[in-house]
Specification:
single chain; alpha+beta
């Protein structure tokens, strides 16, 4: 799984009043484990490059800026500013978390069906792999506006659940489910290629799902 804390050395900022606050390492854009054109024809190279270099990078830029402002506000005891920054942190932090999972969930060698423990759990919780795909696709396509369709793990019931999150709301802080597989249905993820036919994009994305990555995420949380 990607480390989300890779970046520059710890930074320090000194304020006019002489105070000094330690800032966290900056979040950085993770490299893709494949070339931009590797997921064609399901997702075009143009979409992948824009999605990764522009959209994900923008979430990171705002996230880093917001964390710096938040550290300053905490140092000053400025609770009003801290509260005002919370939605910005959630949106852009969620964008970074979601996309860092999404890139790993896809592979030019993906598709097919999962095997092993994940396959058994899907059968147990959904009846069959086809039932699971149908339910997750329907949930994802039905999202109003922008958002994500997720397969997540419920640590309390030890079962797999399907969920939809609006905007960039991150799955685990929002629902308690541990994210295993995410499908991005923001228009920037597919519109240049699929126009407004979201259902075709969701149908085709199964051909590049990296079940090895999804299985590793499941095995990690299931054994914890």
């Amino acid at each position: 799984m990607l480390s989300l804390r890779l970046g520059l050395p710890t930074l320090f900022r000194t304020f006019a009043n002489g105070g000094c606050v330690t800032l966290r390492n900056k979040h950085t854009l993770p490299d893709l484990p494949y070339d931009y054109n590797a997921l064609e024809p399901v997702i075009s190279a143009e979409i992948m490059q824009l999605h990764h270099q522009k959209h994900h990078q923008t979430y990171l830029n705002v996230l880093n800026e917001t964390e710096m402002k938040l550290a300053e506000a905490k140092d000053k005891g400025d609770l009003v500013t801290e509260i005002a920054l919370t939605p910005i942190l959630k949106f852009n932090g969620g964008g970074h978390l979601n996309h860092s999972i999404f890139w790993q969930n896809l592979s030019p060698n993906g598709g097919g069906e999962p095997t092993g423990a994940l396959a058994e759990q899907i059968k147990m919780d959904f009846g069959s792999f086809e039932n699971f795909k149908t339910k997750m696709a329907a949930t994802t396509v039905a999202i109003q506006g922008s958002g994500w369709g997720w397969l997540g793990y419920n640590k309390t019931t030890k079962s797999l659940n399907i969920a939809a999150c609006g905007n960039q709301d991150p799955l685990e802080p929002t629902t308690g489910l541990v994210p295993l597989l995410g499908i991005d249905v923001w228009e920037h993820a597919y519109y240049l290629q699929y126009k407004n036919v979201r259902a075709d994009y969701v149908k085709n994305i199964w051909n590049i799902v990296n079940w090895k990555d999804v299985s590793q995420r499941f095995e990690k949380v299931n054994s914890a």
